[in-house]
Amino acid sequence: MKTNYSVNDLSKHLFWDVDISMLSFENSKEQIINKVVEFGLIKDLNIIKEIYSLETIKAVSLEFRNLDVVTLSFLATIFNINKSEFRCYKLKQSNQNFWNY
Questions:
Q1: Strands, E, within 6-88: which ranges?
Q2: Model-level pTM?
Q3: 78 Cβ contact partners less than 8 Å away, ≥ 6 residues apart
Q4: CA–CA separation, 14 and 70 (whole Å)
């Protein structure tokens, strides 16, 4: 893991709900990756690609319980895998929606 960056180098809008001084790239890996892939800018994605490997981002992303459909499609395309391999996709398929027939 490269440490040329700090969490402060990421976009400020990503961490509006947490104290950014409490985050670190080592201890908050899942939270940082989740915020960046869902709400980040391309520069944020490039930063986490340099800090973590694509394999690490892939492994963490596969375990997210919730991703919006656009982010899910984006990640499936980047990693060249099927959407059905993501945990969030499996959970969404197993949850019955009562309002849409």
A1: none
A2: 0.82
A3: 54
A4: 17
